[in-house]
Amino acid sequence: MPGLNANEYDAVIIGAGIGGLVCGCYLAKAGMKVLIAEQHFKPGGYCTSFKRGKFTFDAAAHSFGGYRKDGIVRKVFRDLGLDMLLNIKRYDPSDIIMSPDYKISFRSDVAETIKDFISAFPLESDNIEKFFHFLNNPSPISFARMRNWTFRQLLDHYFLDNKLKTILAFPLLGNGGLPPSLMSAFTGSKIFTEFLLDGGYYPEGGMQALPIALVGRFKELGGELRLSCLVKQIVVRDGKVAGVHFENNDFISSRYVVSNCDAMQTFSDLLGSEVVSKEILNEIETMSPSLSMFVLYLGVDNNTFQSLHQPGTNLWILNSYDIEQIYSKINKGHFDEIDDFMMRISPDNQTILAFVNAPFKSRAYWTSKKGKLTEIFIKGIMRNVLPDLTKHLIFRDAATPYTLYRYTLNYKGAAYGWSGIPSQSSFSRYRCPSFINGLYLTGHWITQVQGIPGVIYIGYDTAKMISRK
Ligand SMILES: Cc1cc2nc3c(=O)[nH]c(=O)nc-3n(C[C@H](O)[C@H](O)[C@H](O)COP(=O)(O)OP(=O)(O)OC[C@H]3O[C@@H](n4cnc5c(N)ncnc54)[C@H](O)[C@@H]3O)c2cc1C
C-alpha cells in the first residue's frame, strides 16, 4: 500500500469472528490496508467446527438465517462473491417444536407454518394470522411504539392461549437466552424473522466453511490475517486511536481500530481506566451478558436415526408450559433433569448436537459438573427423543460455558452478546465511542439482532461507517 510502512495499517480488527471478517472484507474491498488479529488458532469465533476422529462437529453456531432473496446474509455473500463459492442448503422444516400436545413445524413456506399453528390452536386463528402478518411486515412505527415492550407484552397483545404463547417463546429462550418477560419485543421479533421464519441454512462442509470463505476473500482483497495473535491493548493518544499492542508487546500502528471482541474486554482491559471514564466503566459493569450454553457433542453409528427425525432440522423439545420456571432453573444452574432443550442431528447423520442454556460459573465449578451434566443430558435425550441412543454412541463430549469463554474470550461465555432486555438496547451508542476517535465496535455485543445474521449486518455497516469517513 502506498505511503504505509510494514507495521502501519489503515485498520486493525481485533477478532476474526464472523462480524470481524465481514467488516475486514468490506474495508479491504474499499482499498484499505487491513489486518485482522485473532487470538485463536482458527478463524470464526463461535462459528467454527472441529474434528474428533471421523466426526466433524460445529462448535456452537450450527445453522443460520437471513438468506432469503433479499435477506442481509444473501446480500453480503453476493456482494463478496461468496454465494458462488459456498454450497448453502436450506433444511425444511428448519425447526420443529415438540411439546406433550403439539408438534409444530417452521417451514420455508410461511403459509404452511401458519397452517400448522392454526390447526393446533384453531380458536386463535385470527390472532395467529395477525401476529405473522406483523412479523412479515414490520413497520418502524409499530416498533417505535413498542420500544420498551417485552416479548411477553407482544405475545399478550396478540394471544390468549398460554400453551401457544409458550410454544412461540421457547425457541427465543434457546436463541436469545431470555424468557418472554425479559426479552425486548424488538429482539424477540427479529429472532423470529431471521432465525425461525427464514432459518435452517447450512453450508456444505459445516459452519467452518463460512469463515474459510470469508478469509479467502479477505486475503484476495489484500487483507492480512494473523492467527494465535492476542491483542493486549488498544493504544489511544490525544483522544485518537494510534494502534494496538499484541501479547508479545509488538506494536502495530493504525488509523482505525475495530473491536470484534466482547465489549467488557474492549472497555475494561484493552482500553482501561486511563482512557474510559469511571461512569462508563461503571455502566458497563452493571450490564448483564446473555446466558451461556452447555453443548453436547455426540458421535453415532452410521444412518442410525435418519428415519426417526430429519437431519438438519432443529428439534425443540418442550415438556413444561411454564417458560419462566424453565428459565429460572437454568439461570440458577439447577439441572437435576434436562427435559426442555434443543437438538439437531447433523445433515451427514453422524453426529448430534444438543444445547441447553446455562449460567457462567468458575472453571472449577464446570470441571466438576461437566461429566455429570453430560450424563443427565444424554438421559434427557433418551427419555424424550431417542430411547436407544446409548446403544449407538461412539463418541461423547461437551462444551461448558467456561469452554465457550476459553475459546472466544466472550465475557462470561455469553452466547449472544449483551442480554436482549429493553433497558440494554441503548448500548449500541458505543459502536463508535465519541470520546475515542477512530475506534469502532462490531459483532454481537453491539447489535440487538443476534446471531449470524445480526453480526453479518453489523460487520457490513461498521465498514460502511468507516469507508464513508
Ligand atoms: C452454543 C452456541 C450456539 C449458537 N448457535 C447459533 C446458530 O445456530 N445460529 C446463529 O445465527 N447464531 C448462533 N449462535 C450465536 C452466534 O454464533 C454468535 O452470535 C456470532 O457467531 C458472534 O459473532 P461475532 O463475530 O460477534 O463474535 P465471536 O464469534 O465471539 O468472535 C469474536 C472473536 O474475537 C476473538 N478475540 C477475542 N478477544 C481477542 C483478543 N484480545 N485478541 C484477538 N482476538 C480476540 C475471539 O477468539 C473470536 O474469534 C450461537 C452461539 C453459541 C454460543
Overview features:
seven-stranded mixed β-sheet; alpha/beta; binds flavin-adenine dinucleotide; 469 residues; FAD/NAD(P)-binding domain
N- and C-termini, Cα separation: 19 Å
User: What share of residues is helical?
Assistant: 25-40%
> Ligands bound here?
flavin-adenine dinucleotide
Number of strands: 18
Low-confidence stretches: none
Q: Could you describe the largest sheet, including whether it forms a barrel? A: 7 strands, mixed
- The count of domains is 3
CATH class of the largest domain: Alpha Beta
Structural class: alpha/beta
Give the CATH architecture of the largest domain. 3-Layer(bba) Sandwich
The geometry reads as globular
Give the amount of beta strand, in percent.
Answer: 15-25%
Cα radius of gyration in angstroms: 22 Å
CATH superfamily of the largest domain: FAD/NAD(P)-binding domain
Describe this structure in words.
Helix 1 (18-29) packs parallel to helix 15 and helix 6 (151-158) crosses helix 8. The strands form four sheets. Strands 1, 2, 9, 10, 11, 12 and 18 form a seven-stranded mixed β-sheet that branches. The model has no long low-confidence stretch (mean pLDDT 94). This protein has 15 helices and 18 strands. Helix 1 (18-29) links the parallel strand 1 and strand 2 (34-37). 36% of the residues lie in helices and 20% in strands. The chain is of the alpha/beta class. It has helices at 18-29, 72-79, 110-120, 125-136, 140-145, 151-158, 162-176, 185-196, 209-220, 263-271, 278-285, 323-332, 363-384, 401-408, 451-468; strands spanning 8-14, 34-37, 49-52, 55-58, 88-90, 95-98, 103-106, 201-203, 224-226, 231-237, 240-246, 251-259, 292-300, 314-317, 341-345, 351-358, 393-399, 439-441. It has three domains: 8-88 and 205-287 and 414-468, FAD/NAD(P)-binding domain, CATH 3.50.50; 92-196, no CATH class; 291-408, no CATH class. Flavin-adenine dinucleotide (FAD) binds at residues 14-20, 37-40, 45-47, 60-64, 230-231, 260-261, 265, 293, 295, 355, 404, 408-410, 415-416, 443-444, 450-452, 455.
